[in-house]
Sequence to fold (679 residues):
Amino acid sequence: VNIKTDDDDKLDEIVRNALCQPMPQSVEHQLRHRMENVRRHIAEEKSSTFPRPHFGWRYALPLGAAAALVVAVLSWLVAPRSSFAFAEVQAAIRKISTVAGTVHYPNAPQNDERGYLSADHKTMRAELPGGLVIVMSPNGQRLLLNTREKVAQLGPGTFPADDDTVRHILLELANVEQTAVRPLGVKETHGRSLVGFIVPSSQRPGIDLRSSIAKRMQTRVWVDPATHLPVMMEQVPLDPSDPVARVIELSTTYALNTPLDNSLFSMTPPAGYRLLKEGDKFPLPPPVLPKGYGPDSLIVNPRQGIGKARFGMSLEQVIEAAGSPDWIEEGREPTPEQEKLMTALKQRRPADSAERLEIGKQLETLYDAGKLTSWSLSYRSLGFELQVNRKNGLEGIMCFGYADPAPGVPAPYMGYFAILNYGASFGAGVMRPFVGRTSEGITVSSAPDEIIAAYGKPTDTMAHKNAKWFVYADHAERERLMIFGFVDGKINLMHFVTQKKER
Amino acid sequence: VKSLIEEFDQIVAPVERQMMQTVWHVLGNVHDAEDALQDALTIIVKRWKRVAQHINPRALIVKICAECAYDHLRRKLRETRRHQRLDDLDETSCDRGPAEELSQQELRLQIMSAISKLSRNQAVAFLLRNIQEQSYDDIAAALGCSVVTARKHVGRARQRLSVFLHQLAPHKGTVP
Fold:
């Protein structure tokens, strides 16, 4: 057989002769039988099951998976990665000297603040909204400045323990387990490339968030690749729609090891300032009102609510109406078994601090395991707090007065500021007495007689030492209560409560 | 249902024999031919709407058979190469003597091997042209390309086959 040819026709002929052998009867019979089977199958099928063209859905999954794989591989190839380990960031943090930082609260920008730490880590300065400046020295002195009214006051002030300084927050980063830190890639901000790392909340023991909320947050640290020093630290909710976690969302921008003017840390009031005597009432600057607040936003109607926030509103509605609070806490109710365990733990006498810490952790775990029942929304910079029940919605409004100190009432203008870690621990805002009034014109400066003139004789009156309470109960369809508390004849608390009557 | 069967019979029945011949000629083995025909019918039934609405449904059906036969041929040759068994490839024994039968089988094997090395479109175009003697218009319609492209497929298949066959049998000389 010769199969070598350059002639097309010859080639065709060779191929045809080789392949086109006659089909034997037996083969034709078998093939025809196969065709008949298919035909019968079609005949037996109902029209609904007769194959219809589809759009290749059977390929959708493999194609989708392949596409996802390609995207993942490309992202991995293209994604900028840190060229250094977090260990180098930790080494750089241990050597920091000065700190200058700005805290930004994305949901409450009126609380944004600045802070500074001197090179010897002994003096701190906080610049708070509205023109309030606080300088704290290590010798137990505190300088308060009202930059608007040019007023200064020197007084005793506790320098926060080292655990509470901004430096400590950074040192805390220096001590986290490297294996727990994950790279976050690179982002461009203000013309700079920053390298990101994710630090899990569990690795930040110093953060004193209620753990149930802390677990829902993530810390992101953005580092300058040239100096390996943090430039920004963000505390962001894992779920952006989580209304509770969003309240404590913040980002701190740092300038580390930069020369700071000594005048920032001077305990001498600047020239032109009027120096108040210790014990004189220091004029706090007026609060910077949240966006959307109008003239009626801080008026309490005991039967309706405060501003746009109405009794019965859900947590989300309250935050929408009253703005993001300065701080939020979750109220939980333990089961009887949990209650029993908690009582037993509280009765234990710890032998040392390690055991005390362990008991504290166990108590916190038990507390977190309890059923979520309510939230406390603190608008401390405006002097009030809202209590929201999970079932009944907004059911309590507490307005704080100026008595200092009083049992159960936070002292005003303690000077909490985030730059000293308080922001991460207790939220933002300077504590103020309530800056609003009731719809009947009662303020925290009103006298008992004015309250009686506005609301009549109280249903009940109580007194203890220098404190006195007026209670107004309304036993109509809904249980309503108004409580006015006085210390030394001045209002220190106005509490408006509404509850569904138990039947 | 009846109308669908009627439609199926109307389109497929006239090309039944062509379908069977295509798979048989390419594969030369009743079992492989059966499998290839079954595959082709499955594809045709699954894509019935597309087949029925095709500009030349019969050419398309034969082309699907040629494709399935080509796929089976490649698979068979791959498996055969793996097992080094070429003896069971061919069943096309006719009324020939043993020597003639052996050389015919060898030639067929070489041609099948060469065809399996062509691209799918080239192989299908070449088979439709040579086995079914289809016009270039029908081949173009079946392949979904222009007539010029169909001619190019066949031409290139011929060129490559010629080269393959030269390589396979360099000692055989040239056809006069």
Q: What stands out?
A: DSSP finds nine helices and no strands in chain B.
